[in-house]
Amino acid sequence: MAMASLTMTSTSVAVVPAMRRGDARHRAGRRRAMGDATATATATATVRCGGGCRRGGVREAISPSIDEDAGTSLDDDDAMSGGGGGSVSSSSVAMSRGGVGATTLAQRAKQRAAGLRKPSAFGVVPDACARVDFAVIGSGIAGLSYALDAAEVGDVAIITKASAFEASTSYAQGGISAVVDKLDSVDEHVRDTCIAGGYLCDERAVRVMVEDSRAAVETLIERGTRFTRRESDGALHLAREGGHSRHRIVHADDMTGKEIERALLEAARAHPRITFYEHHFAMELLKTRDGESPRCTGALVVDEASGTTTAFVASSTVLACGGAGHLFPSTTNPVVSTGDGVAMAMRVGATVANMEFMQFHPTALFTGPGGATKLEANENAFLITEAVRGHGGQLYNALGERFMSRYDAREELAPRDIVARSIDSEMKRTKSNCVFLDITHVSADEIRANFPGVAAELAKRGLDMTTERIPVVPAAHYMCGGVSTNENGETSLRGLFACGEVAYTGVHGANRLASNSLLEGVVFARRAVASVTDEINALRAELPALDVDEDELRRWLDKECLALTRACATSSAFVTKDDAWERDMRAEIQRTMWNAAGIVRTTVEMEDALRKLQTLSRACEDRAAVCSGYTMGTAEISNLIVVGRLMLRCALMRKESRGLHYTLDYPEPVDDEKKPSFIVEDVAADASQRAPAAPR
Ligand SMILES: Cc1cc2nc3c(=O)[nH]c(=O)nc-3n(C[C@H](O)[C@H](O)[C@H](O)COP(=O)(O)OP(=O)(O)OC[C@H]3O[C@@H](n4cnc5c(N)ncnc54)[C@H](O)[C@@H]3O)c2cc1C
């Protein structure tokens, strides 16, 4: 059966209308937000840059020699081979809003395994269908903030691929930036953000975020977050981090994310209109056939325990899937950060932007040869919070020299990209595996009081930070680019929203200012709900009624929605354990990305890496075919490949060095290049029905 093809065949250039959206009010609103930019696209994949901080206008088309078919062309017939049989009878349907009938699903899984269920026009017969108002993919700060607000408007399904707590949010240490001190100002926070961002930030979006920062912190407090307060007067204790000209970091000791996640999870679990689907993997977004107004209609989700698939048809679908740190061998991100959100969005033709800007945290604990003790074989790099440098921590190279003054007048308080590059340079210069962070000149009591979490973690490894230097290296930490949205979290595809790290809102530019990401997650999630509230009735009305019978929902999916490209998850063993192929494949991707798209880049290496990822993509498809479908491991790997290629393509398009993107071929910033990079992939045969490149 022919799948919705993302395979690119032609490179002709076509002009498409600036916006294709269903209702006129929405169109007008979006046009306002976009500044009426006319979008232009190639028929394959287009990298675009808006002028300055605005979006729109073609910058450069990707080389025709690069085949853009990452992980998409698995044929359902192969995967579902063996036998006829029609769809399952209505009497066996047990799916309802917010609940999946387990017996029925088991029966369906058996039928699928026995080849009794064959692909429909929709691509595959999902084991179950559910009609929900809000499908939120991800349970970090962005997903939970969105869900808690959205639950005031309708029923919410939170779909999350691990236990709900497992998210980057839970690992955030430093804090959340906000203008709460009376000596501070919105203007100063905006200025610091834009300076850190290499003047590539969308200043309007930054201002929106900063103006809402106090309210964001208040909301987190209302939802039960206990931030650290001053003993003297009970006011919020404010820390200072690199790149901030003021003390403005609201925090909960040095375990801010853990406390925020605890509070939001408790609030969400207690909410009667929120249902959690933990250990459920979002495989693919659902989309209507490209007509006059294509839209996202939900997500295909796999229950990891049973391998059964559920099509969640949603009035509003929200990507809150976090970042993609696992593209690199050393990362502070938890295992869930595999770029699934960006890859899924790309496959339905939503616009992605600024993927070249991957932030490497300068100071992750080094556990390689000569470093600190490793606690687990595949542990994520433990982050030594920037606040240690903010508190006077000094960096020394392997020769015992303090070096930051050679690179930047702000020394250890310079923005992350500068500190990371300086460390990289010192490691290369001294041929050593790491550098050292030293805070031993501060009193032991003060260190323990300010960094209880870091001190305890290091103590577990036999390292006393009050008397010893800490071995550190840069590690992949934060994805500044992502699925392009406007200030209301809307992507270029109607019905699809994105917030948090998966989104590109324009606030981080070429480099994220410390502690701005938790803030971005709350502010834009809340704005996304506020904006969808106006539209929810229209979005609902385009889909079957919320209490629709499941058979009718299946018929609707068959008739209205695009065939899914990877609906063929295996019914059993969706989650594999310690699979050698998956382990080696991941290691190969990570090696390729670190060598070519790490802290210092070159054109030749990036071009080679792009070809290498193309080969790995084919290997991944072969693997999925051999295994009669995607396992969670193959799905994540193919997503990593898609995201890796996007990073390389954006990086290759940028003929300058700016912020986190540093290339030896263009080592200086270039004014003409000071614009974001946009990529849109065409999933429609007809160029005129393509989503716009520039969603503002
Ligand atoms: C160690 C560390 C320290 C940090 N410190 C700070 C800090 O001090 N201040 C700051 O502002 N920022 C900090 N950051 C960055 C910040 O924590 C993250 O950017 C932010 O928490 C991202 O939130 P999120 O909700 O967008 O994504 P996450 O919190 O990463 O949540 C993503 C969610 O999506 C789910 N998911 C992903 N893919 C799928 C799929 N296919 N199907 C179903 N579910 C899926 C995941 O399971 C997870 O629940 C830090 C990050 C790390 C790793």
Provide an overview of this structure.
The protein is α+β, with helices and mostly antiparallel strands and 696 residues long. It has 2 domains: 1-168 and 255-357 and 480-696, FAD/NAD(P)-binding domain (3-Layer(bba) Sandwich), CATH 3.50.50.60; 362-475, Alpha-Beta Complex (Flavocytochrome C3, Chain A, domain 1), CATH 3.90.700. Helix content is 33%, strand content 15%. Strands 5, 6, 10, 11, 12, 13 and 20 form a 7-stranded mixed β-sheet that branches. The protein starts with 12 loop residues before the first strand and ends in a 15-residue tail after the last strand. The model is unreliable at 1-103 and 683-696 (pLDDT under 50). Flavin-adenine dinucleotide (FAD) binds at residues 137-143, 159-162, 166-169, 171-176, 256-257, 281-282, 320-322, 332-333, 336-337, 340, 383, 478, 500-502, 515-518, 521.
